[in-house]
Amino acid sequence: MLKKWSALRIGPRTLKTALAVTLSIIMVSFYGSSTSNLIFATIGALSAMGATFKESLLSCYSQIAGVLFGVFAGVLLLSLHMPPLLASGIGIIIVITFYNLLRLRFSPTLACIIVVTICHLTYTTPFIYAKERIWDTAIGLIVGMLVNLLIYPYDNSKQIRKTIERLDKELIHYLEAMFNGDETVPKANKMLTSLDEINHGLKIFSDQKLLFHLKKQQKDLSSLLSCEKKARQLVVHLEILSDLPFPGILIASNKERLERNGAKIKDQRILPEELNEMDIVTNYHVNQVLDLRRELLNILREQ
Q: Could you list the residue range(s) of the whole structural domain that residue 97 is in?
């Protein structure tokens, strides 16, 4: 029951979005082309509230490009004196084809809506509509961008660190399972999932701009990228261990290191005087894993 209600929590981004829309409406009331065009500013403010600076910027480009392409296609078709329905259909084809030719990353939906609107305009001219749409949308975009960048900007660096710490715990559990005495080899699936989460989190963090903490963000990003590199190398060694038919016997130094790192080793097999191939491969990769783990934790502690 508590989990269900926790989903209703009002987060900072929700509050920021409401604030951006409210401020946009106020600005349009004073400086907009017409209070009847509040919807343009509202759409602009909502579009600029992406999770990251890069996402917000792309949304702004999408809005501006949509208005310009839509107006251009709509005015072109009106000049040909086509019936509104026919002009709307042809206009949509033109816009989508143009977007595909330019390989634009954003959706042509807005441009298509503007084409249809212009083709059916009865209360004003296309140029006045275009001017009003661009101006009022720009007000919403600017206000939304400023609110998004200046007020509690999204910072997921703590979540990335927590995921790295979780991967470290999964690593210890993995090694305990490998050397629990039953000679079965576990899979590294959980750590692969954690590594994917780290990569995704870093992509979001690198796309953000923490304006008042840019130096700290660059330092944190550099440190977290180093952690990700170590984690990726570590997981490669674990995948090799996972492909073994059975685990080799640990040498004393590796067993001692594992226990010192918090792993409970139940494997009681006696190491032969001459190591076989499986023992050599196992101990090499366990040693590499423990070295990389130490380096990864040292980077985390230095942050």
A: 12-150
pLDDT tens digits for range 212-237: 777 888 888 899 999 999 999 999 99
pLDDT digits (tens, 9 = 90+) for 255-280: 999 999 888 988 888 888 888 888 89
CB 161 within 8 A of CB 300: yes
Kindly compute the dihedral angle of the four CA atoms of residues 251, 255, 261, 267, in this order, to the nearest 10 degrees.
Answer: 140
Residues 216 and 83 in one domain: no
- CA nearest to 23, candidates 150, 146, 154: 146
- Hey, how many other C-beta atoms are within 10 angstroms of the C-beta on 143? 24
Whether the predicted model's global pTM rises above the 0.85 cut? no
- Residue 12's H or E segment, with its range, is helix 12-31
Do the domain assignments include residue 6?
A: no
Last residue of a domain, one of 101, 116, 150: 150
Main-chain phi, psi angles of 180, to 5 degrees? -95, 5
Residue reference for tokens 């996402």: 55
